[in-house]
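Page 37, top half.
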Amino acid sequence: MNLGPATSLTGRRSIEIAVRTAHIAAMALLAGGHHFGAAPPSLRVWGVLTAATGAVLLAGEASHSRHWVYQARGVISLVHVGVLALIALAPSFARAAVVAAMIIGSVGSHLPRGVRKWSLRHRRPVD
């Protein structure tokens, strides 16, 4: 069965899907651990995996367009990372920061393309 080029998975796309899946899984375990009050040392591996896969996703996303940093998708990603920085800066906010990051990440990932590609600099969607 030939699905055609529009539905074929390239090597890069397959890797992006695998990294995103690993990121979601690590983040889910990190968030669950924070929610249920797990000891910080037991969450360290999930925090590191979440950060590492997030960094790979960030690099991949930023490589899609030279305009990324001032498009809505770039700004949302940087806010997402900034919220997570609260965990290191103020550990008492860890539980709230993880939940806020999950909400920001989920909403940002599911916005319509025209909104995600909206450029604050150009005041219109740009590729």
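Page 37, bottom half:
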Amino acid sequence: MSDLEDVLELMHTSTGRWASLRMDGFEWRHLKTFHLAWEHHVTELRKRRSVTVVSAVRFERVEGGEPPEESLERWRVWLAKPDKRRAQFQVGDEVVAAVFFGDWWWGWSPSRGFMTNDGAPNHSHGFGPAEGLIDHSGQIASLDLRVDGRSTFLSRPVFRVTVVPRLDEHDVFDRTLHMLGTGADEYRLVVDGEIGVLLRCEARYGGNAFRVIEADEVGVDEVFSQGTFEPELLRAGLPDASQQ
């Protein structure tokens, strides 16, 4: 098979290539370019009759000073078949933690405390930046892929891929593109050559990177500790995403 066929096969079958998965990483943003990409996206959507209201992104000054040029936030995820997930990620200055069993979720944050949906499927909870690296089946239909070659990343075999978005005229919101970086005109991916998840995604606009979601540690088919997916442990709080 060609490299492109290998990449497509890996991405299509990714969820069947691991029993458990642990990833630690970060999300980086260049805020000015992030804003420009979003505004470009808004402009394109406003050309469509079905879009009437779009909220703009704003970056405020902090304590009277200039707004920051960049942001960097950590995240961690644990997944175990068939349906257990745990995530820790930053929202502003807080670390949010959540555990998922099928339709059930339990979450904790310093400002909101302990929460659960009691299994109600219409009450969702975010999974953080890593969702775009793991749940990427929609990328196959939404992106034109070009394989740039094989390499290694985190000592793992990978494919380096450049992709260009196709915005379906009948779908004004593409969840896959939103997870990777809204408004990008190019994405550069690092696709794991064994399990098909993304280890890195760089969203670019006008030739400049504005969002990077990257893993800096990966564990495949590990045996997790007994408390990894225990919802009650969230009640104690998780003050630092580097802990546990």
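Margin note: The helical segments are 3-12, 31-46, 131-134, 139-142, 175-181.
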